[in-house]
Design brief:
Pfam families: Terpene_synth, Terpene_synth_C. GO terms for molecular function: magnesium ion binding; terpene synthase activity. This is Terpene synthase 4. This protein folds into 2 domains: 204 residues, Glycosyltransferase; 218 residues, Farnesyl Diphosphate Synthase. It is mostly helical. It has 21 helices and no strands. 23% of the residues are buried. It starts with a helix and ends with a helix.
């Protein structure tokens, strides 16, 4: 798969566009906010009994990457590292391999027809080659999600998706059926990577791309990161309990695990431990403020509360009820604490550039689909859903372009935004009973 995926965005020059964050003092980089070495930091935090094995396996996999002579096999290995969620150990090696492959194929590649020539007939329509297999269709389907606006990739998604759905109806091999089903539901590029790393670990076992060192490293890393996240949840829960808002606001949501999921997904690198904990705090207060607006605040109180936040002035809250004062001061103090941390680490005070934005809050979260159908009464619900899906697809194309060409932003900042979009899929993936089963599964894993 890695070869096809790479070709589908081969027009991107890794030398020019995949820059890391600047090291200038006034530039904000999450990487600079963590002082310890990533692997050793995790080991020290979790008191690992297998630290030597962990470090030795990292060394073996790194040597395997550096000594590989077959570019295709190297790309397959990189694809496996990414799906297993352990590519962060080998950023430099991966960058060097991709740059080498990019240069070997001649740099910028704008003709998408060459990439998909094996799937397209003389009329430009996709058709199945007699020699094509399920693996090729899975590769084509996955690659289509890297679309930055090419019509041929839209056709590729429709063609490969329909083929795979038809294959599921006739497949008698359970493993193949399960893999097709998983790929259709969770395309790699738009899914939360660490949510599915265990699935890929089980699938890779015994495969050609998996050796002992890679398997042991992936298994250890999976357990270590999960343990690290559990410790972070404990820290967030202590903060939330000490804050006392749960006792003061009986009507409000009390879900620190749910709040932690957002930064956990947006910033998966273990080096961002402190960032995840700190970012969870304002997210928690956003949920609480939402409950205040929806449940119990009077109009006059909410207007004054909003003005106090917009002006960032504590003197304006004297006439507010106690629970609003506590919520406001919590938000005020947490924001200033984070700003102080940023200033201390990077020499820049973000308080002065906090943007004030007015949001239309009428106590009702409207459905775009509902409004769209009211404006277009002749359309069916199915047509409305197709319209919404097209809008989401177009939004992903724009996001892909920004992430593949991340300047002027750092690579890790662009990746965090991409991960945030992936999390939105999780938060709106309701089943027929309006349950978020995938989200619940991830939350439950942090409780154990």
């Amino acid at each position: 798969m890695a070869s096809l995926i790479f070709c589908s965005f081969a027009q991107i020059n890794p030398n020019a566009n995949h820059k890391q964050a600047s090291t200038k003092k006034n530039d904000i980089s999450f990487y600079n906010s963590i002082s310890y070495h990533p692997q050793r930091g995790i080991s020290k935090d979790l008191h690992l009994t297998h630290e030597d094995d962990y470090m030795e396996n990292i060394k073996k996999v790194r040597n395997m990457l550096c000594s590989g002579e077959d570019s295709f096999e190297s790309l397959v290995t990189i694809d496996a590292l990414q799906r297993l969620g352990i590519d962060y150990h080998f950023e430099e090696e991966i960058r060097n391999i991709l740059t080498s492959v990019y240069n070997n194929i001649g740099g910028v590649h704008n003709d998408k027809g060459d990439v998909f020539k094996k799937f397209v007939n003389q009329e430009g329509n996709f058709e199945l080659s007699p020699k094509e297999d399920v693996g090729g269709m899975l590769e084509l389907y996955e690659a289509s999600y890297l679309n930055i606006g090419e019509d041929i990739l839209d056709k590729a998604k429709d063609f490969s998706g329909q083929y795979l759905k038809d294959m599921m109806k006739h497949s008698e091999e359970r493993q193949t059926w399960e893999h097709i089903s998983h790929t259709l539901k969770y395309p790699f590029h738009t899914s939360v990577i660490r949510h599915h790393s265990e699935y890929h670990l089980n699938r890779y076992r015994g495969g050609s791309c998996m050796n002992k060192a890679l398997e042991e490293l992936a298994s250890l890393d999976l357990n270590m990161v999960r343990s690290l996240h559990q410790k972070e949840v404990q820290a967030v829960s202590r903060w939330w309990k000490d804050l006392g808002l749960a006792q003061e606001l009986k009507f409000a949501r009390d879900e620190p695990l749910k709040w932690f999921m957002w930064p956990m997904v947006a910033l998966p690198d273990p080096r961002f431990s402190r960032c995840r904990i700190e970012i969870t705090k304002p997210i928690a207060l956003l949920y609480i403020i939402d409950d205040i607006f929806d449940v119990c605040g009077s109009l006059d109180e909410l207007i004054l509360f909003t003005q106090a936040i917009n002006r960032w002035d504590t003197t304006m809250i004297d006439s507010l009820p106690r629970y609003m004062k506590i919520c406001y001061m919590s938000l005020y103090n947490i924001t200033n604490e984070i700003a102080y941390y940023v200033f201390k680490e990077h020499g820049w005070n973000p308080i002065g550039s906090i943007q004030r934005a007015d949001e239309n809050q009428d106590g009702f979260d409207g459905s775009y689909l509902e409004y769209y159908l009211k404006e277009n009464p002749n359309l069916s619900s199915e047509n409305g859903r197709k319209h919404v899906k097209r809008m989401i697809s177009d939004a992903w194309k724009g996001l892909n372009k920004e992430c593949f060409f991340p300047e002027p932003f750092s690579r890790c900042f662009a990746q965090a935004n991409l991960n945030g979009a992936r999390m939105v899929r999780v938060m709106y993936d309701y089943d027929g009973d309006h349950r978020l089963l995938d989200h619940k599964k991830q939350v439950d894993s942090l409780r154990n």
